[in-house]
Design goal:
The protein is an alpha+beta fold. The protein has two domains: 1-50, Pemi-like Protein 1, Chain: D (Ribbon); 51-84, no CATH class. It is 18% helix and 21% strand. It contains two helices and four strands. It has helices at residues 21-26, 72-80, and strands spanning 35-40, 43-48, 63-65, 68-70. The model has no long low-confidence stretch (mean pLDDT 89).
Length: 84
């Protein structure tokens, strides 16, 4: 989805909108996935939430360490320093 697509949606009484299925599919967003909502000025951006390492921000091969996202390199550094 590299080109701009314009869709008009009305908020329901609870302030919700529905992302059309074809857009969710194109963005690899599935039911019960976490999404990130960012407000920048008067714009709202919605994307699939992709947590990065809490220490370095890397989002490749993330593992959960005590319920926090950590990359393998930072995990190894924690392990070597006996922080747990």
């Amino acid at each position: 989805m590299s080109k701009k697509v314009r869709v008009i949606r009305r908020l329901d009484p609870l302030g919700r909108i529905v992302l059309p299925k074809k857009y969710r599919k194109a963005l690899d967003i599935d039911i019960k996935d976490d999404i990130e909502i960012v407000v920048e000025g008067t714009n709202v951006y919605v994307s699939k939430y992709n947590p990065g390492c809490v220490f370095c921000g890397n989002n490749q091969d993330i593992i959960l360490f005590k319920d926090k996202p950590v990359c393998p390199e930072c995990y190894q550094n924690i392990k070597e320093k006996n922080f747990f």
